[in-house]
Amino acid sequence: MRVLVIGSGAREHALVLALSHDPAVTALACAPGNAGIAALAETPGVDVGDAAAVAELATSWRADLVVVGPEIPLVAGAADAIRAAGVPCFGPSRAAARIEGSKAFAKDVMTAAGVPTAHSEVVDNPARLDAALSRFGAPYVVKDDGLAAGKGVVVTSDLDAARAHAMGLLDDGHPVLLESFLDGPEASLFCLVDGGTVVPLLPAQDFKRVGDGDSGPNTGGMGAYAPLPWAPGDLVDDVVRRVVQPTVDELARRGTPFTGLLYAGLALTSRGPQVIEFNCRFGDPETQAVLALLRTPIAGLLLATATGRLIEHPPLEWAEGAAVTVVVAAEGYPGRPRTGDVIAGSEADGVLHAGTRRREDGAVVSAGGRVLSVVGVGDDLEAAREDVYRRIANVHLTGSHHRTDIALRAVRGEITVPSPQEA
Ligand code: AMP
Ligand code: GLY
């Protein structure tokens, strides 16, 4: 099978690595890829936001399967164009990708499907903002109603900060979504979806704030681990039954079936799991941890998803133990990252590349905000944490920073799901 992956981050590096281990894969490409991916796959250039160009590459490279990593090509209609060219595609249509591309659309689907989520209101007129904020009360949750790579959200008890963020969005012509605050730990559940059938992967947790102890601004994600030792045993079944399957069924009912990976971002509250957001693709960095534990060959699994044959696929096999990934970010991230610095140790096992490129002299240099995702595995979460931080100690990038507390509270047993009585 000739498999083409679209994207250039550590999520795509993790997908390419898993595909490279699958004997069914005879040729592998990742466009545009990065310096780490280039060691495993061809890396043709492509503008990922240009759906026609992505489909043209799928055809000219003679792909048997295209796996689209990021949301940008999906929201731009890349999967529609690839399928129209006759090539199976792992990734939703533009219409189904709106589950991520528009938070208002996602809320509408959830309401129709009876899926538990925060109460919300769209504000598009500054004159209505103050009254809306006072209806919600603190803590305020203020979101950009569109793609913002996790950076468009402000959660604050400070009314002036909430108002300032909302006014900034409105001034830029972006409608604002206000939400009620959800308490409880967060979890990410990835599900393979072939239009109707849902196959969940291991649950994971990601760390969105830049600094230890969840300090500082939101980022695209600074680390993740899987599975969740603190989660109730029936969490995955419960979320599939109450959240994912009803959403998939509602999208199919609307004539826009979802194919690919549906990512449920959840808060595990005293009233049960509630949806914070849906994404229409694998999450980054959770994928780097989840795929490190998947033993089932991935090419056939993704092809079965893309072609509506998930129901025929045997149950997934997972390694025992746990995986932890830690993102190494460039100086300045999530603001303006410093780039062009030489990275030492970037070719070691367990080091996945995100913002990297190979310079003409052969050196691997930083080329983005999130530069590497280092992955560790172990018999349990504590061992996986030790493994990942041991690997990170061998990576050097001037000015870089990473969190030192990924999965730490879980190892210490400090994460609990609020019980209904505490509500
Ligand atoms: P989003 O871009 O919607 O995933 O939001 C980014 C982050 O903001 C989430 O991972 C949560 O930590 C936080 N957040 C978003 N919505 C809420 C909410 N309704 N209540 C509490 N925290 C939230
Ligand atoms: N891990 C967050 C995201 O992929 O959006």
TrEMBL record:
<dbReference type="InterPro" id="IPR020562">
    <property type="entry name" value="PRibGlycinamide_synth_N"/>
</dbReference>
<dbReference type="InterPro" id="IPR011054">
    <property type="entry name" value="Rudment_hybrid_motif"/>
</dbReference>
<dbReference type="Pfam" id="PF02843">
    <property type="entry name" value="GARS_C"/>
</dbReference>
<keyword id="KW-0436">Ligase</keyword>
<comment type="similarity">
    <text>Belongs to the GARS family.</text>
</comment>
<dbReference type="GO" id="GO:0004637">
    <property type="term" value="F:phosphoribosylamine-glycine ligase activity"/>
</dbReference>
<dbReference type="GO" id="GO:0046872">
    <property type="term" value="F:metal ion binding"/>
</dbReference>
<dbReference type="InterPro" id="IPR020560">
    <property type="entry name" value="PRibGlycinamide_synth_C-dom"/>
</dbReference>
<dbReference type="InterPro" id="IPR016185">
    <property type="entry name" value="PreATP-grasp_dom_sf"/>
</dbReference>
<dbReference type="GO" id="GO:0005524">
    <property type="term" value="F:ATP binding"/>
</dbReference>
<keyword id="KW-0547">Nucleotide-binding</keyword>
<dbReference type="Pfam" id="PF01071">
    <property type="entry name" value="GARS_A"/>
</dbReference>
<dbReference type="InterPro" id="IPR011761">
    <property type="entry name" value="ATP-grasp"/>
</dbReference>
<dbReference type="GO" id="GO:0006189">
    <property type="term" value="P:'de novo' IMP biosynthetic process"/>
</dbReference>
<feature type="domain" description="ATP-grasp">
    <location>
        <begin position="107"/>
        <end position="307"/>
    </location>
</feature>
<dbReference type="InterPro" id="IPR020559">
    <property type="entry name" value="PRibGlycinamide_synth_CS"/>
</dbReference>
<keyword id="KW-0658">Purine biosynthesis</keyword>
<dbReference type="InterPro" id="IPR020561">
    <property type="entry name" value="PRibGlycinamid_synth_ATP-grasp"/>
</dbReference>
<keyword id="KW-0067">ATP-binding</keyword>
<dbReference type="InterPro" id="IPR000115">
    <property type="entry name" value="PRibGlycinamide_synth"/>
</dbReference>
<dbReference type="GO" id="GO:0009113">
    <property type="term" value="P:purine nucleobase biosynthetic process"/>
</dbReference>
<dbReference type="InterPro" id="IPR037123">
    <property type="entry name" value="PRibGlycinamide_synth_C_sf"/>
</dbReference>
<comment type="pathway">
    <text>Purine metabolism; IMP biosynthesis via de novo pathway; N(1)-(5-phospho-D-ribosyl)glycinamide from 5-phospho-alpha-D-ribose 1-diphosphate: step 2/2.</text>
</comment>
<dbReference type="InterPro" id="IPR013815">
    <property type="entry name" value="ATP_grasp_subdomain_1"/>
</dbReference>
<protein>
    <recommendedName>
        <fullName>Phosphoribosylamine--glycine ligase</fullName>
        <ecNumber>6.3.4.13</ecNumber>
    </recommendedName>
</protein>
<dbReference type="Pfam" id="PF02844">
    <property type="entry name" value="GARS_N"/>
</dbReference>
